[in-house]
Structures are given as C-alpha cells and as structure tokens.
C-alpha cells in the first residue's frame, strides 16, 4: 500500500550476561527478526572444527572415514576463531589451509597393550595450540574426575592401534554442521500487559487478591498501603 513503511528500529536490552550465557530483550520488532538473529547465531558464528584427517595406522574395528567423521564432530574451544583466517582466504599458504594463521594441528597416538579394552577419547588429541583444545566435559557436580575421559572416538582391543594427524580449520555452520556452535539459541514472547485502571477501581480487595493469584507467573501484586 502506498505510503506504508515497513522499516523497523529494533531495540536491544541486555538482561543477563555471563561468559557463556546471554539473555536480552528485543523490542519494537516482530518474530521474524528474532528468528533471523537465532538462525544467524547458529549458522554464521565462526568456530573451529577438525576438517582434515590423515590416518597413519588404523587397526581398530572402525574404518578411516567413520573415525574422521567422529573427529569432525568433537567440539573445540574457539576463542581464537575471530583472529584466525578462513583457509580459502589465507595468503600465507595460498589457500592450502595448513599454516599457523588458518589451521591448528592435532596428533593422536594410541595402542592397546593389555587385555582390557582401551577407550580412545578426545583427551588423547594433542594440539599444537594450547588455546584450541577439545571442550572439557568434566562434570562439576562432584563426581570422580578420573572417570571424565572426554568424548569416546573408538575402543581398542589388545594389539589394535590408531595413529593419525588432524587439521582443524575455521568455518561456519552454513558450510557444515560440524562448525555449528555447541550452544542453544531460543526466544519467547514477552507479554505486554495493560491494566484497565477504571475497571480495577470497581473490584473489591478480595476480587483483586483472587485476580493476582490467578496469574501463573505471579507478575502482579497488591500494594499494602494503597491496596491497588
């Protein structure tokens, strides 16, 4: 319709901010903008994930491709992601994606020499950069930390061995799911409540109290002085 503008000027108010958590209000817009922000956070926030795996020795029950796939899905700490270059844009290695500016190298060497099954986990991955390591999933609830051995990659029996070299690169979830942030993004509607003051004046104190108690989220209260 002529003369109608759909331009919006959203406002953001931070409600809570922590190192790994943020809660904010988005006002003066609609759900399409909120959903667009949610999708951008998941699909376009850069992270680091294992992108290339070179298997040297693999005598486990899993084939090379299966192990490479499991390695790619291990979440890595990505504080360095913003300063790293995308491998396709790196001029230091001509886009090869194997230099210190656009990649991080991992090594894994494991061999079972006992009759007990050996669990090869993400803690067995040794990184060339201490700032990019597998995310630590140790349980803070007080359980024995010795049992927290990381994410299982493969299990080895006596005589079986796994040796490999892996390259982690910067990417976004839009390119592949392994670069999606290991986080949850959700939104919900914040109700905008308007109270009819004239109608409220006609209610008795008992009716007001009943109305306050009828709210499941307990957002209303009665002033003990004015009884309003």
TrEMBL record:
Quick check: keyword Lipid biosynthesis in the entry?
A: no
- Pfam families, sorted: RNA_pol_A_bac
Q: Does the keyword RNA-binding apply?
A: no
> Organism's domain of life?
Eukaryota
The record's annotation in SUPFAM superfamilies points to: Insert subdomain of RNA polymerase alpha subunit, RBP11-like subunits of RNA polymerase
Q: Which UniProt keywords apply?
A: DNA-directed RNA polymerase, Transcription
SMART domains per the record? RPOLD (SM00662)
- Which CDD domains is this protein grouped with? RNAP_II_RPB3 (cd07031)
Please state every residue range assigned to the domain named DNA-directed RNA polymerase RpoA/D/Rpb3-type.
21-228
State the family named in the UniProt similarity comment for this chain: Belongs to the archaeal Rpo3/eukaryotic RPB3 RNA polymerase subunit family.
Q: What is this protein called?
A: DNA-directed RNA polymerase RpoA/D/Rpb3-type domain-containing protein
Q: Which organism is it from?
A: Hevea brasiliensis
């Amino acid at each position: 319709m002529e003369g109608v503008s759909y331009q919006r000027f959203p406002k953001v108010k931070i409600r809570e901010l922590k190192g790994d958590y943020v809660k904010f209000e988005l006002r003066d817009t609609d759900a399409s903008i909120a959903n667009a922000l949610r999708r951008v956070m998941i699909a376009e926030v850069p992270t680091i994930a294992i992108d290339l795996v070179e298997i040297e020795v693999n005598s486990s029950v899993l084939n090379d491709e299966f192990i490479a796939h499991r390695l790619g899905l291990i979440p890595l700490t990505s504080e360095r992601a913003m300063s790293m270059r995308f491998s396709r844009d790196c001029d230091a290695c001509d886009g090869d994606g194997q230099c210190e500016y656009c990649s991080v190298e991992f090594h894994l060497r494991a061999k079972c020499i006992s009759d007990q099954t050996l669990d090869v986990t993400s803690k067995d991955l040794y990184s060339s950069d201490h700032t990019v390591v597998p995310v630590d999933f140790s349980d803070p609830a007080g359980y024995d930390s010795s049992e927290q051995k990381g994410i299982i990659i493969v299990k080895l029996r006596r005589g079986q061995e796994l040796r490999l070299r892996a390259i982690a690169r910067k990417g976004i979830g839009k390119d592949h799911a392994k670069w999606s942030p290991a986080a949850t993004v959700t939104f919900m509607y914040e109700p905008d409540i308007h109270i009819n003051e004239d109608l409220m004046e006609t209610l008795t104190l008992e009716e007001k109290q009943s109305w306050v108690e009828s709210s499941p989220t307990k957002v209303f209260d009665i002033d003990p002085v004015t009884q309003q």
